[in-house]
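Try it yourself: sequence plus nicotinamide-adenine-dinucleotide, in.
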Amino acid sequence: MSAKLLEGKPIAEKIKQQIKQDIEGLGRKPVLASILAGDNAGALAYVRSQQKNAEALGIEYCLEKLESNITEAGLVDFVRKLNQDKSVNGIIIQMPLPEQIDYKKISSFIAAEKDIEGMNPQNMGKIVFGSAKILPCTPAAVMELLKETAVDLCGKEVVVVGHSEIVGKPLSLLLLDKLATVSVCHIGTSKAGKLEEHVKKAEVLIVAVGRAGLIKGEWVKDGAIVIDVGINRVADKIVGDVEFEAAASHASWITPVPGGVGPLTVTMLMRNLVEAAKLQK
Ligand code: NAD
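Structure, out:
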């Protein structure tokens, strides 16, 4: 392996120190309301990790448990109540939601100044204008990782694989804001047989698909920075979307999976909460 390992934890630790200072400046504990509808095991695992992170930072984490048969209208009413509650600084909705609930619809009801996942259309829209104060957590985590490499993104060939609303689309806009030359690949690119061609020209490669081994190590350009957002369980191991060992022999920097993007994502959520509390002040 010739690449340097781009780990999320040490960066997260630095950002946590800043969050702690900001909380002192606020003069009171910020409050995060976390809505959990039902008892999905995956959602519960996220809740535990968020709770641990929040407590370590001096953030009050209020878990709002709702029945799995709650109606969409009932959930909207609950969100509205939290919007009006002046003691609550940030609201998140745990995924997956019960099937009768449309996440997009519900997230649009969260007040923009309390939307610490940055998924409200108002906050998403601000990304287009480069004026967003609250960024979606995973794209924000990727931007922090890139900052750590000290790469100047201006004019760089950046290839983003994956165009979801939670990762690829907002991330592409953040990269454009840094004047990178951004190509966004997705399922259509693969269907057209053009994924390899695009990946091979990437000076910075960011992959968020959810398919182990999708990106062959030999496709990675010498000296490229590789950020693997993907999380896949393969034979009881967690791996990303990029063939790690082979890619690492070409790249200059590469994120491990787990240990790259993941540890930073939850820290971005806490940073957004403090930012939201500042905006509300
Ligand atoms: P998604 O399913 O919403 O989107 C997947 C994207 O991959 C789409 O743009 C789709 O077009 C593209 N795609 C699918 N098959 C493809 C193929 N064969 N070739 C090229 N593109 C293809 O997924 P998501 O929610 O954006 O998540 C993507 C991955 O990132 C998942 O593994 C998820 O677990 C992971 N993730 C990690 C974090 C983290 O904190 N580390 C956060 C969010 C998501």
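One thing you can check immediately is this: The longest strand covers residues 31-37.
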